[in-house]
Amino acid sequence: MEKKSTIVKRSAEEWLEFGDEAFNNGDYESAFIYYKNAITENSGSPFAYFKAGNALSMLKRWEEAIKYYIGTITLDQTFSFAYYKKGICHLELLQINDAIKEFTFAIQVNPNFALAYFRRGYCLYIVKKFQEAIEDFNKSIELNPAHADSYVYRGNCYFHLNRNQEAIADYDRAIELDPDNPKVFVSRGVINMKLGNYKEAIGDFTLAVSIDEKNYLAYNYRGFCLNQMRQFELAIEDFLKVIDLKKDFVDAYNNLGISYVGLKQFDKAIEYFDKAIELNPKSATIYFNRGNSNLHLKNYVEAIIDYDKALTIDPNYAYAYFGRGNANYALEQYRDALRDYSKAIAIKPDFVNAYIARGNVYLKMKHLKKSLEDFTTAIELAPENPIAYLNRAIAYRSDNIFSYAVADFNEFLRLYGKEDRLAEKVRTWIRNMGYTPEY
Questions:
Q1: What is the pLDDT of residue 3?
Q2: 129, 261, 275, 281 - which has most CB atoms within 10 Å?
Q3: Distances, alpha carbon 394 to alpha carbons 61, 296, 364, 402, in Å
Q4: Contact, 185 vs 207, CB < 8 A?
Q5: pLDDT tens-digit profile of 181-197?
Q6: H helices within 280-367, ranges in order?
Q7: Which domains does the chain have, with CATH numbers?
């Protein structure tokens, strides 16, 4: 006679043990099945629902996990970690407002839940509510002074609020707590970069890549700093490294173009601007940069096309009007140039170079009074700008007002402070008017 097969019936506790073992071994699919079995045996166990949600979270099945955390909360409304984990799922799904609600519930149940304050602060940071986020990070730090990420993100909030020294202090503290986190060095480097402390920023970005050699953002930022310091060859090395790590990173191509502009290799610069535009055809800045390179190459029509494109994308781009004005001026299209410089000034009333450029157009068009007004405005805005004095002097000389012209030429020489062809030419002009140069 055959023996009938028997099915071993297990308790909820046993299924939970099997689930825990599978979970600890990284077998989250099996763990979830075991936890479901535990729920079948005991549907009143909040822990079984919670653990099932955790297994699904590890599998990144966020929406399913939320359902199990709801099961946990339904059975035990004081289960603060279930609210927290549910909030994490909403955060992963970019449902930020829902995430904030869940972290708030977790805090209401457990007012000393440091991680819930941190996560809520992080959500508030994402939606740019920086002051509210700071309050949560403050509480997180109060409850857990050794939590490095709380300092990092509070520092980020300070950065966005232009509270730069507080930001740096937080990044310093985060580095003390977690010196192997490259992101902290990147964050501190960015604020040093913003403050113009390029050497310090380069040091931070170098530390970041020494920890994580694939941190393309650190290479890109370091290259930017090197560009600012006119170390263009070194900058190019960094940007090429960025492209090697992330071939579709638009900023790297644009920055490479800027490096080659610095080296006066404008054809090479245009190649990289072309690639950047191919990747992002909606960037006014890249068209503007390519327009400048075309302007340097005397490709004036191509430059105007680029500036036009930049202005189509951003109609308030003062520098693009200025660039187009320069191209029109070079083509002797003075009325168009005048219109462009005037538009640049309307958008940016302190645009010194635009006043100087418009003054030159007025001079070409024999509108001496308007020309002098623009050069004088430029001097009022930037009294240390030698070019404004030079141009006003030329205007005065054109109207035979020699005493005023000589005074401005001498002020140009004082501010210019260089010994080159231009300085010598100005001295010759002064002598030709019957005066002696003072500098």
A1: 44
A2: 261
A3: 73, 25, 12, 10
A4: yes
A5: 999 999 999 999 999 99
A6: 284-296, 300-313, 318-330, 334-347, 352-364
A7: 180-265 (1.25.40.10)
